[in-house]
Task: structure prediction
Amino acid sequence: MTAIGPANIRVREAVQTLVPYEPGKPVDEVRRELGLDTIVKLASNEGPFGPFPAALNAIKAGIGELNRYPDGGIYRLRNALATRHGVEQDNVAVGAGADAIISYLLLALLEPGDEVVCGWPSFPSYVIDARKLSATAVLVPLRDGFYDLPALLGAITDRTRVVFICNPNNPTGTMVDRQAVDAYFSDVPSHVLTVLDEAYWEYVDDQGYPDGIAEYARDGHATLVLRTFSKIFGLAGLRVGYGVGPSDVVAAVRKVQNAFDVTQPAQDAALASLGDVAELERRRELNRVGRDQLNGGLLQLGLKPIEPAVANFVYVDLGMDGRSIADQMLRKGVIIRPMAAFGAESAVRISVGTAEDNDVCLGALGEVLTSGGTS
Ligand SMILES: Cc1ncc(COP(=O)(O)O)c(C=O)c1O
Result:
């Protein structure tokens, strides 16, 4: 084996300070290493169920065509999404995950030294993607786990190009309601684009939760609303998400988009998923029950999860090193996400799994905490 050493090529300064994404080991590898029969993975806010049946059929039907590049215009899916949301096709950008849309948007909008504003802790891509472009991410602390929209407004300067509102917020699982978002939009200056990140939209059944597309984007506000097929639709592994907003913003995103970045199976599966309203409803309800189960179990363990959580995960401060607890949970076959990377050393985030997954997780956490949380 040859180790290829460094070539000492100059890397952009903004990139030098970034830390590469640290993926966990593949689940099978962990299972083998620890000699466990099963692993319960509740670390990435994925849905616990696979793709919708119609999506699986669509994927299977297209396998023989994988020698072809995908439809670069993503025509059928964009068209279907436009119809569904009552907008024109030019108002819809589809990318390899909502994550890709965030990265394309910032690439299109930010000059070095520009600013983005977001709550913190929140979805790290807002910060990382801005820093990649030598822009500054202004982090506004959450208030009791909730996005603080007046404080976001207060952080806007002449250099602010984008404000991110993560609704519900990853990792705390909380939402801001219609009244708060209305008030925000009535005060936000016109040079700012607001991204309403609604990656978990389908899970939320609170009447006060606004539909960013119907209530703000379609009304002509300067907002790009993000949604994804990674969560309730069970397609995280295929990478497909989208943004709906003003035609010039969507055009800018599409100009910097990598050609053919959304694979044909991803396009076909997403399109097929849109029709199955009953399965969506079933999963939403199971998630609600599972989230109550996790919250109830955490309370019984004497912990205080942030409530109300409205998406498919819960966030809890354990009052001790979250990384160490997550590590001990792993050895019991349960993967949860420590929040140190979000600046919360003593917190963890747990995704809602099946009833059985949640039970196993709560059991393991109980054991770890009873043993004093020390390894
Ligand atoms: C708030 C938020 N936005 C965007 C994404 C990205 O989703 P996707 O899988 O579509 O890239 C995630 C994924 O976890 C998320 O939590």
User: Anything to note?
Assistant: The CA atoms of residues 94 and 206 lie 27 Å apart. The mean pLDDT is 96.
